[in-house]
Amino acid sequence: MDIKTMITLNNYRCETDSIGSKNVPQSAYYGVQSLRAAENFHITGLSLHPEIINSLAYIKKACAVTNCEVGLLGKKKAKAIMQACDEILQGKLHEYFIVDPIQGGAGTSINMNANEVIANRAIELLGGNKGDYTLINPNDDVNCGQSTNDVIPTAGKITTLRLLEQVHKQLLRLYQAFLIKSEEFNDVIKMGRTQLQDAVPIRLGQEFKAYAAAVKRDLERIYKAMDEMRSVNLGGTAIGTGLNADTLYLQRIVPVLTKISGVKLMQAEDLIDSTQNLDSFVVVSGAIKTCAVTLSKISNDLRLMSSGPRTGFGEINLPAKQNGSSIMPGKVNPVIPEVVNQVAFNIIGNDVTITMAVEAGQLELNAFEPIIFYNLFQSIDTLAYAAKTFVDNCVMGITANEERCRQLVDNSVGIITAICPHVGYKKASELAKEAIISEKSVRELVLSKGLLGEKDIDRILDPKHMTEPGISGKELLKIS
After folding, report:
1. How far is it between the farthest Cα atoms of the chain?
2. What is the rounded CA–CA span in Å between residue 418 and residue 459?
């Protein structure tokens, strides 16, 4: 054996599993099962979400504490495992989580990656060498009383709850931003439109208040959806029957995990059901999708109202964030609403994937949690980022072109609707057609035909009057 070969071999350790033996880099905290998974699943080229790594660390720490309390794990081993978990929660060792987020095996590769990293770090803390699983074993010690089938769903739910907190925070900011703008624009009269055609006047502030109301509903939906994530099947082990889980461990594990993670959790009433069925993730994905649809619709409105600016609606100005063209000087595009639209399109697609993956579960387990988590975490993250940039780079900087808005109202035939109760639908319809053909204003035609007096028409067409509940019966009789 030459020196080069000896040096190469010295940089590796040999680990064995049920498949056979394999050389693992000596410096690596992962082991043979993680390495096999990394080689099998070159799918996204991405790493696990940092939050699910942290969630796994919370679970493994809670399990070590509980197993120690019930006498299944020695104090020395438990302490080393707990310390390794704490280091992961501090952001260390994340680079050794090498498995792809999308993988076969219902997340076994993710669970074993965590077990091996924690075991090897704990071995070091006890003075041993990585790979010496006689000191701490990834399966027998770190995974004691657990199965991939209760660890991974629980980790997914903890991760989802933590990510939803960020979405909630950003959506609350968006809700408040729309309220601020609704007050700022309260006196700006503009033309309301239905099916992109002139309808009746509305205040710009009313439109923004409606946006705030829609976002508020989304906040409430997401808050309710979070409760779906609090019921976990930890303790159910392989199929929810709790095989190989100590009775006391089963009773204590979820309260211990709640205390250690700071996330309010409860053990599922039926662990078999909770292991079989992942419908709660469809609920969360649905709430995220609904919110994305809301924000996309609002973005559409803002793009329309800011269109032109001279040959479109031109009712509002969006903040100029970057050049809009490589060929047309001075062009500025509505890039922030556009990116919100695109985030929504992606979230809607993710929701379809999540729905199909949840439906595809069979008998006692759903094997498709990796794709569910990959898409759900992406949806939650991107919605939070989209809401943040929407507030910071768009909504708070919107200004109104008040004079332009008023001109469009004055020139619109849509205001004929306000006159309809006083002259009747048929006469109002005739006036509308004549106004369009003659290009005369509604006010001008009503006065020229002597249908209403100047004082009455001015009161009826008063901007604020047209944006609030209708005229009373007494007023109708008075005018008539």
Report:
1. 111
2. 10
Q: Which of 34, 55, 261, 325 is catalytic?
A: 325
Q: Residue 190's closest CA among 473, 470, 407, 458? A: 407
Give the model confidence (pLDDT) of 18-39 as tens digits: 999 999 999 999 999 999 999 9
Taking the domains of the chain in order of start, what are their residue ranges?
A: 3-144, 150-229+279-401, 413-479
The H or E element that residue 197 is part of is strand 197-203
Inter-CA distances, 55 with 265, 274, 368, Å: 13, 18, 19
Known catalytic residue at 325 = yes
pLDDT band at 363 (very low <50, low <70, confident <90, very high): very high
Residue 385 identity (one-letter amino acid): Y
Give the contacts of 374 (CB within 8 A, at least 6 positions apart): 44, 101, 102
- Sign of the torsion angle spanned by Cα atoms 288, 290, 293, 298: negative
Q: Which residues contact 6 (CB under 8 A, 6 or more apart)?
A: none
Structure tokens at 390: 């929407």
Higher pLDDT, 2 or 246: 246
In terms of phi and psi (left: phi > 0; alpha: psi -120 to 50; beta: otherwise), the region of 196 is: left
Q: What's the distance, CA 305 to chain centroid?
A: 27
| pLDDT mean over 204-210 | 98
- Token representation of residue 406: 């008023």
Q: Which fold has domain 413-479?
A: Ribonucleotide Reductase Protein R1; domain 1 (1.10.40)
Summarised one tens digit per residue, pLDDT across range 219-261 is 999 999 999 999 999 999 999 999 999 999 999 999 999 999 9
Whether the ω angle into residue 25 lies within 30 degrees of 0, i.e. cis, is no
Please tell me if the domain spanning 3-144 has the same topology as the one spanning 413-479.
no
pTM above 0.70, yes or no: yes
Calpha distance 19→223 (Å, rounded): 45
3-144 domain in CATH 1.10.275.10? yes
Strand, coil or helix: 442:
helix
Closest of 413, 188, 177, 410 to residue 316, by C-alpha: 188
* Beta carbons of 375 and 310 less than 8 angstroms apart: no
CA distance 284 to 223: 10
Q: How far apart (Å, rounded) are the C-alpha atoms in residues 371 and 357?
A: 7
For residue 126, the cross-strand partners are none
Phi, psi for residue 345 in degrees, rounded to 5: -60, -45
Could you say which DSSP state residue 48 is in?
A: P
Residue 476 pLDDT grade (very low, low, confident, very high; cuts 50, 70, 90): very low
The CATH code that applies to domain 150-229+279-401 is 1.20.200.10
Taking each helix axis from N to C end, the angle separating 148-184 and 108-125, rounded to the nearest 10 degrees, works out to: 100
Tokens at residue 163, please?
């990510």
Q: Could you identify the residue written with the tokens 């919605």?
A: 383
